[in-house]
Each structure stands twice: as structure tokens, then as C-alpha cells.
Amino acid sequence: MSRPRIKNEEQYDALRDKGYSKEKSARIANAPNSGTYGGKASAYEERTKSELYDQAKELDISGRSSMNKKELISALRNH
């Protein structure tokens, strides 16, 4: 079984090595500006629970309403 076409293979592999899920790695590596920007977003730990919740909502992460900050961070990293 072959994986879907990845626009930026090097970035995809680096993200997988960091522990990102296949889905999230592919989404990032296939973004139109893949490899152009990066490192500008604040770390999840620096964000408020509300900000993390909003990001989880955008990604439609289930169970987010009952998650604490640490759980939201984990869910976002593993999405």
C-alpha cells in the first residue's frame, strides 16, 4: 500500500521523526507554503486553555470540552 503523494517529503519525514501523526505530518508537508515559514507560532504551553480549545475546535477534535490544558496539548500534537 503506497501512501498519498507528499509535496515536501523531507519535511514530512522530519515531522514523523518528531512524533507527529501521519495525518498531521502530511497536512503540514502538503500546505501551499510548506517549508517557507515555521517556528513563528507560540508553543502550546504558552497558550491559554481557551486558545488551545479553539484550535482543537477548528480541527474537530472530539472530547475537547472535557479536556484540561495538558490533555488539549496532547490531543493537538497527536492529531
UniProtKB/TrEMBL annotation:
Any Gene Ontology biological process: DNA-templated transcription termination
UniProt domain Rho termination factor-like N-terminal: residue ranges: 48-76
Highest taxon in the source lineage: Bacteria
Residues covered by region (Disordered): 1-41
Family annotation (Gene3D superfamilies): 1.10.720.10
InterPro entries: DUF7218, Rho-like_N, Rho_N_sf
Protein's UniProt name: Rho termination factor-like N-terminal domain-containing protein
